[in-house]
Design a protein that fits this description.
The chain is an alpha/beta fold. About 35% of the residues lie in helices and about 25% in strands. The protein folds into two domains: about 1-120 and about 300-315, NAD(P)-binding Rossmann-like Domain (Rossmann fold, 3-Layer(aba) Sandwich), CATH 3.40.50; about 120-290 and about 325-340, Dihydrodipicolinate Reductase, domain 2, CATH 3.30.360.10.
Length: about 350
């Protein structure tokens, strides 16, 4: 399928690399309001450059649009692309509120086109193994499920773009921007959260509206309890891995980015030996924990390939908008609780 990219910044280059590495798909075009940015990416990857929005969407050869604009600027281009008859893959978070996501979902349903998200961390072998263990009930009753994102961002990072650290375009700080992928992984393997109480703070940065530190207490539908810690003020020389920890009456697993610190079950399984040989932690360097440019694009490639396969096979996509909505709903509830002094917020089901 022929792809077009909206946004020729850092994220646009990740998308271009992922599309270029796919089998059976190609990068057809890029749109950016800055002519120099669009032309630079187009030259590098051998595609068309557009600075006119209508011309970009009117291209009859364009089939799939990926969106890499700031988080709070996803809805409008997504709806426009859907109404133009294009399938849409949108960066994380899908949007910054569930109300905006619901508008996007309605547009997708009206157009008959696919609206999906970049949930690239779902496509790592380790999270696939963890999801399989959860689906097979290897944990027994899950009693504890938590996420930890203890990252570092410099003041220069926030100063590098006027939209960074704003509620309007970032939609939040350490939790919404840096933590959303890990929150998605947590919900993916441990199931829905029914209630949350939270506290946020701005501790180590200036000139931003949002939090750089967040702690939330979770109550899962299963009865399990857990926490989310998200921060961009935890300095490390190499960066702390983002962790998902799941424990139950028959097993415990601690996922650290793309490998495991702990993989331990009361009842041995046929895959355990292979996991211990290939997926146990060998390095403590965090994936994008200190440097957002250090994240590789293979997860994006697999994410995009799943969307294309779903379109071609006329089946539901594993990373559709409904899936992407779940993490945003929880994060919105966390922020509401923090604004209300840590009150317990019950999530709608």
């Amino acid at each position: 399928m022929k792809f077009g990219i909206i946004g020729a910044g850092m994220i646009g280059h990740y998308h271009a690399k992922a599309i270029q590495s796919m089998s059976g798909s190609s990068l057809h075009s890029v749109f950016d309001l800055r002519p120099e940015s669009a032309e630079k990416l187009a030259r590098e990857y051998g595609c068309k450059a557009y600075t006119g929005w209508e011309d970009f969407l009117a291209d009859p050869e364009l089939e799939v649009v990926t969106i890499g604009t700031p988080s709070g600027a996803h809805r409008d281009p997504a709806i426009a692309a859907l109404q133009a008859g294009k399938h849409v893959i949108c960066e994380k978070p899908l949007e910054i509120t569930t109300e905006r996501i619901d508008e996007m979902i309605a547009a997708a349903q009206a157009s008959g086109k696919t609206l999906s998200a970049v949930l690239n961390r779902r496509f790592q072998p380790a999270i696939e193994a963890l999801k399989k263990a959860s689906d097979e009930n290897r944990f027994g009753r899950i009693t504890s499920a938590s996420a930890y994102i203890k990252w570092w961002r410099t003041q220069e990072y926030y100063d590098s773009g006027a939209w960074r650290g704003t509620w309007a375009l970032d939609g939040g700080g350490a939790l919404m921007n840096q933590g959303v992928h890990t929150v998605d992984q947590l919900l993916y393997v441990a199931g829905p959260v029914v209630a949350v109480a939270a506290s946020t703070a701005l501790l180590a940065h200036e000139r931003i509206e949002v939090e750089d530190s967040c702690v939330a207490i979770l109550e899962f539908a299963s009865g399990a309890r857990g926490v989310i810690e998200a921060s961009t003020c935890c300095w490390s020389s190499v960066g702390h891995p983002a962790e998902v920890q799941v424990c139950g009456t028959k097993g415990s697993v601690f996922l650290a980015d793309e490998c495991f610190r702990v993989w331990d079950f009361a009842d041995p399984g046929p895959a355990d030996a292979h996991i211990h040989q290939t997926l146990m932690q060998g390095s403590v360097r965090g994936l994008g924990a200190n440097d957002p440019t250090a994240i590789h694009f293979d997860g994006h490639r697999r994410n995009f390939q799943e969307v294309v396969s779903a379109i071609q096979e006329k089946r539901p996509c594993a990373v559709d908008a409904t899936e992407a909505r779940k993490a945003v709903a929880l994060i919105n509830a966390v922020y509401r609780s923090a604004r209300e002094g840590g009150t317990r917020i019950v999530l709608s089901t």
